[in-house]
Amino acid sequence: MSYELDGFLRPKSEYDDKSESSSSFTTTTLPQHLLRIDAEERDDVYGSPTYGCLDRIPMLSFPSTMKSGQDKHPYIECKQEDHNDTEGRPTRRSVIPDSTNLAVDPSVFERLRGWYASFRSKPTWWIAAGIVSGMITYFAICVSLVEPSTPDYSEQRASPAPEWMLKEKGIAVQKILKNIGPIIGANDGLVVASPSHGERDDLPDYYFTWTRDSALVFSALNQLWLLPPSHSPTAASATASKINLFRSYIISQARIQDTPNPSGDLHTGGLNEPKFHVNGSAFLGDWGRPQRDGPALRALAIIPYAHYLLDRNYPLDIEFIKHHIYDPHRINSTGKVVKNDLEEVAHHWSQSGFDLWEELDGHHLFTILMSMKALEDGAKLANRLNDSGAANFYLEQAKKIQNSLERFWDNEANYYISGIPDGQHPAPVIMHRSPSEGDKRPEVQTRMMGRGDGWPDRELSDCSLPLSVVHLNQDLSSTRETFASSEHSHDGDEGPHSFHPADPRVIATMYRYILSFRDLYEINSDREWTDGWMLGRYREDLYDGVGKSKANSWFICTHSIAQVFYLAQSSFRASGSIHVSNLTIPFWSDILSERVTPGDRWRKGSDAFERAVHRLGEVADRFLGASRRYWDEGSMSEQVDRQSCHWIAPHGLPKT
């Protein structure tokens, strides 16, 4: 029986009427440069230095060369070559022997050459754009760089990405990989927040691994490396040398899940512990704990990899899923990382915890939205693994979360608030300040939480809101139907709380968050918000990177708004219309520099529609441009001083 390479190997007879004896098949020796794969030398959980790196290459072979019992997925045994990579680290190459003969359709041979050339060439520009506007945004909720969602910008822009954006993609990936153990001195697979140990008075000690940050880093790598075979025929080649990195991360998280800590253990809430030492041991100092977004984000990071392995369907992949990711027959069991996290989220999402800024204990929109998405995605994985009972339970809990989102919508101030104190309802609306430009802009109303509820006086409009939109909408198609129902049935002001980037309530919330920084940072004093502002976590923030004084702008927050606007732009193009509701009049009036009429519906192809989506992209570009002014050869710190423009807080974050 002959085989062809088609994502993963299938008997040719399954999808082609050609017989095995077809004259189109010839015996050929494939050149080594097509079959050489670099892989870091790492031991797997069984102690084997080759399991996980591709030391056995799927082959197209005659039955005489098949290994016994492998009539469906045969392999070629490869020899190993030791060498050093470009940074001097010992690595291995898996190389097919020179004399190996394969039964190959000549067209497949040509496809292999094409795939190889494609893989070696520059990535398409939209990946780079996603890295810059998505991945680079993700620390602080992450010290990471995450590309949760990579919208198809090709519909909005006719020209390729600028050279600086392509360059930044390479810098971003390089910085990520340098912060993953063992390179940085951490255990294998652990992501380090920063190499900063607090060795100077102006530097904090970030030499820890955060569950949230690590998950968002690997979510970014998923977007870059785990393209399904149906989307990219180069997927197998492009990920061959990276497969060990994902497995190392999963195994490192299994060990952390099994480590008792101040939040508990595997059975008593320990999965919600926010950070650990870089050797995987528990951090015992005072901290804002528990943080319930960690298990949800970790599940979201690993689930795409599980689907990738299931699609590939190699026997060792299925075993890895069962032993290290998800076993339907084991609950709260050591090593079953995703199953453990999903059970934790499903049973405890309604309990209070600290926010992603590690400051407020209560119920937080970001955390609850990540929990909802984790349960929805977890249900899909559970169904694929024949765990239908768990899948139904996860979906039931996700529905309950969706029904609870109304608590975070302020009907008087007309925006989403980021959190609610435990056991209390949102505080009453008060007037914060008057408009600065006569009657051109509406008076801004905000919530202030008083000290009586245990929270400091603070508006509940912060950077977690755009980050929620970015991370929730990794796949816009999954929320498009919900949004369409909301927009067309209720004019966008009522209906399901989808938190879709084009939902009028979300747009109003983003607008409110941006305007909260008016007249706050001197570095923004010479421009309007539509020209691109540097943004911070929240207006009243005091954290200056080391202590408490006056906080500054953050790269991640500035980038997150740009990403939300790119997502909204992509969504409007996909839906084909924009409805101007009472909620979005101020936003569109500013974007277009003219008053708009409530009730207008701009449809695709009209001048109004095309101008609106074009301007939305322009404004997003300007937020990235504002940030880029403070980059240093593509690298970034955590904050930019509100007056001097100097970097604040540690360098070397994975986001940089």
CATH class category label of the largest domain: Mainly Alpha
Find the CATH topology of the largest domain. Answer: Glycosyltransferase
- Residue-averaged pLDDT, rounded? 74
Oligomeric form: single chain
Region (Disordered): 1-27, 480-501
Family: Belongs to the glycosyl hydrolase 15 family.
Pfam family, one: Glyco_hydro_15
Biased composition (Basic and acidic residues): 7-20, 487-501
Verbal overview:
This protein is an alpha+beta fold and 656 residues long. It folds into three domains: 3-120, no CATH class; 209-407, Glycosyltransferase, CATH 1.50.10; 411-648, Alpha/alpha barrel (Glycosyltransferase), CATH 1.50.10.10. 38% of the residues lie in helices and 11% in strands. A three-stranded antiparallel sheet has the order 4-8-7, with no helix packed on it. β12 (353-354) and β13 (361-364) form a beta hairpin. α5 packs parallel to α8 (293-312), α8 runs parallel beside α11 and α10 packs across α11 (365-384). The chain starts with a strand and ends in an 8-residue tail after the last strand. Residues 1-80, 91-106, 115-159, 425-452 and 477-492 have low confidence and may be disordered. Pfam families: Glyco_hydro_15. One of its GO terms (molecular function) is glucan 1,4-alpha-glucosidase activity. This is glucan 1,4-alpha-glucosidase.
Tag the structure with descriptive keywords.
656 residues, three-stranded antiparallel sheet, alpha+beta, disordered N terminus, 11% strand, Glycosyltransferase, Glucoamylase, 3 domains, 18 helices
